[in-house]
Amino acid sequence: MANIKKLGQALRVVGDEIQKYESDEIDQLEILEQMYQQIYQQVCVFCQRKKLCWVEEKAFTYQALAEGCNELEKWGLQKDSCFSAKFQGRCAQSSALEIALWNQMLWYRWQEEKQAKFLQDKQQIAAQLINIGEQLAKQEKTRMFFTERENYHLLVGYAASGKEDDISGDSWGVQEISGGKIVQILSDGMGSGKNANLQSTTTVRLLKILLYGGLRVETALQIINLVLASRFDGEKFSTVDLAIWDGNKNTLEFIKYGAAPSYIKNGKKVTTYGGASLPVGILAKLEGFQHSLSLQENDLLIMMSDGLYELNEPNVFQWEKIIASLPTDNPQLAAEYLLAIATSRRGKIAQDDLTVLVSRLVK
Q1: What distances in angstroms separate CA 200 from CA 12, 42, 61, 146, one per listed residue?
Q2: What is the CA radius of gyration of the chain?
Q3: CA distances (Å), 146 to each of 218, 247, 249, in order?
Q4: For labelling alongside 25, which of 144, 178, 200, 298 has CA 20 to 30 A away?
Q5: Which phi-psi region, left, alpha or beta, contains residue 298 (left: φ > 0; alpha: ψ -120 to 50)?
């Protein structure tokens, strides 16, 4: 069970995080430009006069379309044209142009209403989480339910390489959680660079807070799914790769959402664990890969981002064989060795972020 006060703090952090995702300010000029380009593609692209209207006399065309928008906004589609007699005399397709303009206006009006409703719902959810968190945090009677862990610790080696002159979109972290367990997290944001880094660091940071607060993994991921999906454009998602070590019971649990497979090495034996699933932030209902196993002495865990895993090629380049022949069981040296192998195969300019974690439990 959770420490109530810490759980309250965690919910407030998540509520604040949702509120941070403000929608982009609507640029009316940009919207008009998008509308006009859609109209051009629908009506004018094959017209012989397109160069005259859309290049040589672009200002006149845009002015006519802007006046047409104003008329349609006032009166809607009418028997009389929304365009001036002068424009109708120059454009043989003014009727089709008017209908296309009206449809575009309806489309963007619907988008604005949808966004407004979305932002309202998002703020209500955030306010509820913050309120619940504040109420829990105020409770004076709190009890600790963390199980004392035995004398063991986790050794983690890390090596990474981002795209040339770019910030890596991969992030990772380690956190002690309830039950005397240790969770190891690797997340890959969509694409690369600053935005991808923001997505993955947000995922890792919130997971550490929520799991430390005592939430179950599935519940924590549902909350993070809500945070990442709170962007109106629907383009915010991250892979989640979790390894939960329990040294008291000598078990290891994998939980993966859109993440690359992981490997367990014991001696020369290498076993692959993974499954196909969508990243966090894609669907309202999360469905991931889960698997638990008993730890053997000297087990070495290798987690990697998809940038590394995708180098895998049957009969040519196989991570299982490379991992089986690792020259060291030191996690840091092993991570650096695997990254060096990957970069030598990929070339100097990486097409994707490359991250590898190697870890083992030491008692």
Answers
A1: 20, 39, 45, 27
A2: 27
A3: 19, 14, 15
A4: 200
A5: left
The SS3 call for residue 149 is coil
Domain boundaries, the chain: 1-145, 153-362
Q: Regarding beta strands 289-294 and 181-189, do their DSSP bridges make them parallel or antiparallel, or are they unpaired?
A: unpaired
Give the confidence band of 132 by pLDDT, cuts at 50, 70, 90. Answer: low
Q: How far apart are CA 301 and CA 114, in angstroms?
A: 45
Using alpha carbons, list the distances in angstroms from residue 269 to 39, 216, 280, 299, 324.
62, 32, 32, 10, 6
> Could you tell me the maximum CA-CA distance found in the chain, to the nearest angstrom?
87
For CA atoms 26, 29, 34, 35, the dihedral sign is positive
The pLDDT tens digits for 339-359 are: 999 888 776 555 678 899 999
| DSSP per position, 63-130 | HHHHHHHHHHHHH-S-SS-SS-HHHHHH-TTHHHHHHHHHHHHHHHHHHHHHHHHHHHHHHHHHHHHH
Distance CA 355, CA 238 (A): 15
Residue pLDDT, tens place only, 81-119: 999 999 999 899 999 999 999 998 888 888 777 777 766
Q: If DSSP codes are grouped into helix, strand and coil, which group holds residue 172?
A: strand
